[in-house]
UniProtKB/TrEMBL annotation:
It comes from Araneus ventricosus (Orbweaver spider). This is TBC1 domain family member 19. InterPro entries: Rab-GAP_TBC_sf, TBC1D19. The gene is TBC1D19_0. The chain crosses the membrane at residues 197-215. Keywords: Membrane, Transmembrane, Transmembrane helix.
Length: 216
């Protein structure tokens, strides 16, 4: 092992150990602000899922499970043209990636449900973009299409893929991803004068993409 890397790891080890000892108290306090400040100094990999859920305000209950079940039923009831874009994107990106191909089925499940979630339209209130519209056949009525207002582009599935290493439960994974998208990720592909857009891009590339390294 490189001497500099070895020294760096030895130097950081006591800090990570101290953080790990504090984590149970942070989780017991159940305060998102406290958890956010705590994570700035390092987040133990084994408790990352709980801490991120706390920061994002995702506390899975019966309502979350019912919502996910309803969205899954919408997927089975109606095939959308947008589904083909989702299939193609996953096939061209995650399925061909050595680190993410094992999550192919999970990505299909999450992104198809995501496309049916009409609650996501609310994020356009703070976005420079407008939800795409379509005309209902045989009428002059327009509706948001796809239902969530988000047209997936090449690489969209990679927003979700790193999170698959953190969350095994599809319901928790979905709601964490949804919160991340409406708070941060949508700014990564919209024109915006928001002062922290570059920070969001930095956050995604340096924190979420390398997350799988903790499991190897």
């Amino acid at each position: 092992m490189n001497l500099d890397v070895s020294f760096s790891l030895c130097w950081k080890a006591p800090i990570f150990a101290l953080q790990a000892n504090k984590t149970p108290r942070i989780l017991e306090a159940n305060q998102a602000t406290l958890a956010r400040e705590f994570c700035k100094k390092g987040c133990p990999a084994t408790l990352r899922a709980d801490l991120w859920s706390l920061i994002l305000g995702v506390d899975i209950c019966g309502a979350h499970k019912l919502n996910f079940k309803h969205l899954k039923s919408c997927v089975f009831q109606h095939d959308l043209l947008i589904d083909k874009l989702i299939f193609k994107d996953i096939h061209l990106t995650a399925s061909n990636d050595d680190q993410y191909f094992v999550f192919e089925d999970l990505l299909y499940q999450i992104l198809l449900v995501f496309s049916r979630d009409t609650s996501l339209i609310s994020h356009f209130e703070i976005s420079s973009a407008n939800p795409p519209k379509a005309v209902v056949r045989g009428t002059h009525m327009t509706v948001t299409y796809p239902p969530n207002g988000v047209i997936p582009f090449h690489g969209f599935s990679m927003y979700v893929a790193p999170l698959c290493y953190i969350y095994e439960d599809p319901i928790t994974l979905y709601h964490v991803f949804r919160e991340l998208y409406v708070r941060y990720f949508f700014r990564l592909h919209n024109l915006s004068s928001h002062s922290q857009v570059s920070f969001y891009f930095f956050l995604y590339t340096l924190i979420f993409l390398p997350s799988f390294l903790n499991f190897y």
